[in-house]
């Protein structure tokens, strides 16, 4: 257990500096202080509002996520869609429980001096017409926005069961917790990026003076700053913690993450890889083949179509060629992605060959990244496409396809349960709280969001010269996901069925040879490499393989721009 000051902000100028701000009333809910309507607000008038945002709100769950992430020494974490900062607090603490103590008069004066000349935001009452007032002194930095799970009758039963099964004693558990805490690393810097000005002001103390006025583009955000020494390309050092920086930005804008990493506030915490490079950000960039940098992108991915499109672009952007520089965040090497995603997106990214939800995104994710589940855990092998089931759906396996000769197709591989202990979650673990027929005290049937860690592979079967071919073949073949791959190849172009005879040739093509009768959703990554290479070497393949009209400009990758 670590004791740290409770860094508190937004105190009234008329308050006595010797007394810390008052705590919010227990009856004042997070929903009243942080209305959910603010979650979809963009940072500028050009970006549209995006719904479907769900945030991790429970401290215990956030700590579990961070501990499972296994932060490395001197790690730099960029958190996108940070919200009011519950996960930010856990990241800074390394996933450890921190005991709050009141601020001293000297700490209060120091914080005031840090924001001297900056007008604190005037927060409008979210409960209009109800007479509810925001608590004075909100937000309370490091005070819990939500404790999350509460000790109820179910937890009592679980504890009793653990005791009967011979769980460790209190003394042993305390010793194990102390040993684990000593081994946990804390990040060198956490950059909390949030698109909603009201959310980042209310939760993380972003000053109103640094919010761009209406019509100001993100590229000109630094021009609106009044603290030159605390402003750097949209990244601002926070006085709440020397390891915390803030950015009012949205990940839907493609240049945002590289711009954050290029900020001097962030760059000074990144290790220098090439000291002979021109002074500046280039010294921290590294080739793909080098050891991964101590850099992780953490983010809540909106549970919406736009959120899925954004993540699919992130996954596809990691494709590159050996020995050549890569673009976007991959200029810094094999950066980890630690993501909290909705049930449907989780199931498709984690789907294994043979499962109902195995799709194009499953194949590309497995081909480009080493994938590991993060808390909250609730992996359901072979779940239905609506992600409504909470147990394995053996009865919805694909029916065995038969070739024209009547020979059955090879069976799908066995499903992997990953051996994970499922995390019990409640409505208060998430914000906004999801619907639950069991009410507040009953556990959710399945967590509203689950974690995934994506670690880029050094060598991938998905190559840059065949990137468009991978996209095209997967898109066209998964239209007939329950058919044989030989049958599905008819969709890749006129006469595509002739390619089936080349799939099981011993030489001449990349990947692993396969039976043309094998079902599309049962193919693994190495078998897809054979299918793509056979198609790519086909003399009659279509000339235009790209679905949309993307150009070379990275700005064309952005989603939802007016």
Automatic annotation (TrEMBL):
One of its GO terms (biological process) is transcription initiation at mitochondrial promoter. Pfam families: RrnaAD. It is found in: Mitochondrion. The keyword Cell membrane does not apply. GO terms for molecular function: mitochondrial transcription factor activity; RNA binding; rRNA (adenine-N6,N6-)-dimethyltransferase activity. InterPro entries: KsgA/Erm, rRNA_Ade_diMease-like_C, SAM-dependent_MTases_sf. Keywords: Methyltransferase, RNA-binding, rRNA processing, S-adenosyl-L-methionine, Transferase. Its main location: mitochondrion. Residues 119-174, 380-418 are annotated as: Disordered. Its EC number is 2.1.1.-. Mitochondrial transcription factor that confers selective promoter recognition on the core subunit of the yeast mitochondrial RNA polymerase. Interacts with DNA in a non-specific manner. Belongs to the class I-like SAM-binding methyltransferase superfamily. rRNA adenine N(6)-methyltransferase family. This is rRNA adenine N(6)-methyltransferase. It comes from Saitozyma podzolica. The gene is MTF1.
